[in-house]
Amino acid sequence: MDKTIAKEAILKAKLETGETWDSLGKAINMSPVWLASACLGMNSMPEDKAQAICEILGLNSELVPILSACPHKTWDKAVPTDPLIYRLYEIVGVYGETLKSVIHEKFGDGIMSAIDFSMDVEKEENPKGDRVVITMNGKFLPYKSW
Amino acid sequence: MDKTIAKEAILKAKLETGETWDSLGKAINMSPVWLASACLGMNSMPEDKAQAICEILGLNSELVPILSACPHKTWDKAVPTDPLIYRLYEIVGVYGETLKSVIHEKFGDGIMSAIDFSMDVEKEENPKGDRVVITMNGKFLPYKSW
Amino acid sequence: MDKTIAKEAILKAKLETGETWDSLGKAINMSPVWLASACLGMNSMPEDKAQAICEILGLNSELVPILSACPHKTWDKAVPTDPLIYRLYEIVGVYGETLKSVIHEKFGDGIMSAIDFSMDVEKEENPKGDRVVITMNGKFLPYKSW
Amino acid sequence: MDKTIAKEAILKAKLETGETWDSLGKAINMSPVWLASACLGMNSMPEDKAQAICEILGLNSELVPILSACPHKTWDKAVPTDPLIYRLYEIVGVYGETLKSVIHEKFGDGIMSAIDFSMDVEKEENPKGDRVVITMNGKFLPYKSW
Amino acid sequence: MDKTIAKEAILKAKLETGETWDSLGKAINMSPVWLASACLGMNSMPEDKAQAICEILGLNSELVPILSACPHKTWDKAVPTDPLIYRLYEIVGVYGETLKSVIHEKFGDGIMSAIDFSMDVEKEENPKGDRVVITMNGKFLPYKSW
Amino acid sequence: MDKTIAKEAILKAKLETGETWDSLGKAINMSPVWLASACLGMNSMPEDKAQAICEILGLNSELVPILSACPHKTWDKAVPTDPLIYRLYEIVGVYGETLKSVIHEKFGDGIMSAIDFSMDVEKEENPKGDRVVITMNGKFLPYKSW
Amino acid sequence: MDKTIAKEAILKAKLETGETWDSLGKAINMSPVWLASACLGMNSMPEDKAQAICEILGLNSELVPILSACPHKTWDKAVPTDPLIYRLYEIVGVYGETLKSVIHEKFGDGIMSAIDFSMDVEKEENPKGDRVVITMNGKFLPYKSW
Amino acid sequence: MDKTIAKEAILKAKLETGETWDSLGKAINMSPVWLASACLGMNSMPEDKAQAICEILGLNSELVPILSACPHKTWDKAVPTDPLIYRLYEIVGVYGETLKSVIHEKFGDGIMSAIDFSMDVEKEENPKGDRVVITMNGKFLPYKSW
Amino acid sequence: MDKTIAKEAILKAKLETGETWDSLGKAINMSPVWLASACLGMNSMPEDKAQAICEILGLNSELVPILSACPHKTWDKAVPTDPLIYRLYEIVGVYGETLKSVIHEKFGDGIMSAIDFSMDVEKEENPKGDRVVITMNGKFLPYKSW
Amino acid sequence: MDKTIAKEAILKAKLETGETWDSLGKAINMSPVWLASACLGMNSMPEDKAQAICEILGLNSELVPILSACPHKTWDKAVPTDPLIYRLYEIVGVYGETLKSVIHEKFGDGIMSAIDFSMDVEKEENPKGDRVVITMNGKFLPYKSW
């Protein structure tokens, strides 16, 4: 039940068919970001979505239970090295205390859930250079007193 | 020129005056997220903004050069412990490779800048529990070949 | 607004008055575990509870805003050294994958919240040696697909 | 005598037979949490229990000595990354000193054993969202003076 | 209630009075190793022993509650640097798996307790160079199945 | 010349022949702890001892030069995770400074050698639970002034 | 799409054909430093350049999509060990704060981009020993206020 | 002989006098990069240069021996956090193996010295955004065979 | 071009032929320490020396370009575990600041090169136990001011 | 009994009197390297030597018991940053396995003691640049079998 097998099969088929996260997302009516995360092994797919992806990409349906299994989410290094990912880590380091202060001011004591959570990526065209717009949307969870 | 001095003075004055990042941001016509980051010592403030903040909060203008100095941005631990900040770190860990794949698909090889960058935090009201919406907006920087 | 000041004042007063987490918890109608965590600086107290604690322990009410502020939760070392705390860390290491497998079987893909969460400690008397019983109760949060 | 072999055989057979930790635990009269931990390679099984599990799952009895061998308990990273397991780690970080203080108050100087120890997981139904209830039960071990 | 205060007072008085761990241990009828560990802040002392030590060393009895408090046991670095202490760490590294194998062979699955535990240090005279003999004595704790 | 090969062959043969570290040690007139350490790859064996072990266990004498080669002693993690081994590490952490102070008092400035060193493990029967007794015996090495 | 395959094929062909980074760079009209980085898997190559390299080195054009894919940039250790690379790391450690101070003085608050970036290496002949001259050229990115 | 004292005195005087690394460098006929590094405590200054700096900035000549002492060069974290300095670290990570390969091709086996070394920073004006140009110049040191 | 292949072939041939680092060093007129380092993959060999070693040990001359390639010098752990190597690391830790102070006193500000460097190991016979004598000889490199 | 106090007093007096490690070593008939290590807090001094040093440097004899106490040897970072000390660390990394192999060949299985150990530093004049010669002399300790 190794999710790496599904990931590699999907990446290969995606390249051969010319599908994109965008086209695949539209085809199964899900966000491309969520779809990519599930194909890369970081989320579990509902069975019907997994079935649909396998059909579109011409993959063996033996991958369905693998895609719908609960993943073990792991990453390699405490501090990422790839520049695209490091910049996100840096934003957490530079703005973490800022976000904490602003969220507490707006919501009180608690956190933004990373589980009841969704995320989108958009391209904002700009003559000085296009911009990446990432939107994170997570439920606010207040701390419980007991 | 220790930014900690300015940070503590501002937090104390903010509590006493009842000002918020939101009200201060509006007063000086800047985003509350940026303003908070600059007051917490993670960004430099243009002199006129620093002057305005000191006036609103009744602070000595000796803080102006401190607030407008270039900060040394540092954080304590490679993996943050505070739950609010850790959830953001976890999002980078869980979704880092996903974001890399989606951004490369949309933009080609390059990164989202964390320097030519802005960020907002909004509260989305929801009967099942309000939601935190964080929007990041960074210039796409393509890798140069030479 | 340093929570260490409140923590030290409370520990000193607790020793002098002979109060315990148990007696204090009963007096303000909260769990002794939650109360201890808030006094030790790891949770924020509602203002009325903070006021009550200060009165019982004869402490200056200037501590009230400190006790009700949102804490920055931090710990010193990735691997704890104190034997009592290390054993809890070891339980997470030894049984983490087991708990993951059992919870996924019972609830599906998701996690136990550490925010919408409570915990109790009881003493189970036993002729072969008393036993510590720790009960953790956290909301199950299913992963969102989007 | 590699416990990974037994683990993989059991997980595969469990999927094919539709057995669960719960049904297997009942069948051999042991807790599903303990059973899962032993099947995942983190505890040793008494030979009769190992024999029974192999029969129920239709596995070769060559796995019996592997299942009953003393495991080398190891985990990958000082700070776990999987969100379900991380939340448990976070609870130890946030509440470790609290538990230490409460247990010392109730029992004196000593620790809760992680060896003479058992654990259960229950589902508490709740209209606002079901809750995970984890109960840990460990012998109190007082420090010896000599 | 900082155990460092007691430690420093005791080390100073010990030097001035010429007492040794050995003479102090005999005087209060306890092992010098345990006594040293309690004076250095790594174990709690029964009140009568703490009282006796303060009297012998001419120390203020305000140290008694500090000496009898439950310590927070902490050490600085995962790998010790002082050569005397490093050699002990090295013995654990080189012989850890050996001790595990030998103890499992003699006792079955379980561990040697570090809590229900005592230790002695003796000097073995030897013409080729005296030898240090350290004896550790810990209760065997078998793993529980449940 | 990989010592892992010898280790695995010996563990397999030991299981099949029913020999123990104890019986093997007696047969070749060496301590079972030393013998185990050499078989597990952490010490080199004199050739005659290696020859004798191979004969008793019915192993190919090609293992003799492997068993008598100087090992590269290595361990995986700075902080061990297996509970039996961790307890030994914890003893070094908790009692390291104590042992340093007691040994300096008895012997002067220097260390206990981990090279000119032997160790034994005994079972002490006890109605309240048997006890593990580990004895370490190392030459005292005084620091040289020059 | 493993860039290691392309790297190994290129290094082997480079050795057999006697080509150098310099000669290859001239042949395709790119800098040898950039070319080496792309062949070693740390940058993506425009397709025509990848095609040209494969032709010159007599390599299968199946390597073209691998060479033009976006790399996952990773390195092994936070602190490099190879002396040539360590010296560069040391320069960052010793002169990092200096460069920060000098760049802020010349440019204001911001950074030198490592993405919109190029680098050259030249040999400066010198009778006392030739010198390595590394020139880095990166766009200055000012921090944005918002 | 704490270089931090000299550093702070110089930074304060530099701010008050309006001198820059550039103007100071010209005044004493040294590179502003070297001068900054020596003032920030990472290099030792020849006495006459230290004397000249103290005179220009109106500082007590007691700082001269501090400025000319050999520094202990240290930095805080294996991976820098400040974005300007991190980008330099990232360049070493991304291009380290490239530089190694190119330098070995041009010079043979050896390294670029970080001791017999100089560095300059220039501003390259550019309508698309000015560029930072860093030039490093270090003696090539061939490995010795013996 | 993997130096591990050459290393393993040489160690095997050395064992079979009975050659030693000493005898091989004499045969090719190089120091046994340097020779060992080059055979173990930590230095590059001039081609004629590599050719000579292959002939003496009866090895395929395909190893010559491997032996003369520039190595990537890497080691596994920041703190070595093998006792022989750890003692050297400990000497650097204990005496590092001492050596720094003594060398600066004798030579001024600078370092001992580890590149323009040679090392020898001798056995000093001594009735109380033979002694290892290691001599390091490295060029002093003064820091450059510029 | 803080050795830092003695260290600072000695360094100050050494600067004021113009004494050097060399002149002090000669005056008390000890090696300057050992003397420096004892003054810097990494070795204990025999009382007569400590007395002599205090007299030469005009220091209060209260420092004598501090200088003759057993030090707790500690260093800050697993990987040193100062270039002079790092080069020594690098030599251990690059040549550690080489020294292990050469010493085992010359002496059998065992180590060079870092306790029964002495070290000298000499300047070797050389027209191409003076050389630092470090000689380490440690007793060979063979592993004991038992």
TrEMBL record, chains A, B, C, D, E, F, G, H, I, J:
Keyword Plastid: no
UniProt keyword annotations, A-Z: Lyase
Tree of life domain: Bacteria
Name of this chain's protein: Cyanate hydratase
Family note: Belongs to the cyanase family.
Reactions catalysed: cyanate + hydrogencarbonate + 3 H(+) = NH4(+) + 2 CO2
Originating species: Oleiphilus messinensis
Record's function text: Catalyzes the reaction of cyanate with bicarbonate to produce ammonia and carbon dioxide.
SUPFAM superfamilies: Cyanase C-terminal domain, lambda repressor-like DNA-binding domains
Gene Ontology MF: a single term: DNA binding
InterPro entries (alphabetical): Cyanase (IPR008076), Cyanate_lyase_C (IPR003712), Cyanate_lyase_C_sf (IPR036581), CYNS_N (IPR048564), Lambda_DNA-bd_dom_sf (IPR010982)
Transmembrane feature ranges: none
EC number: 4.2.1.104
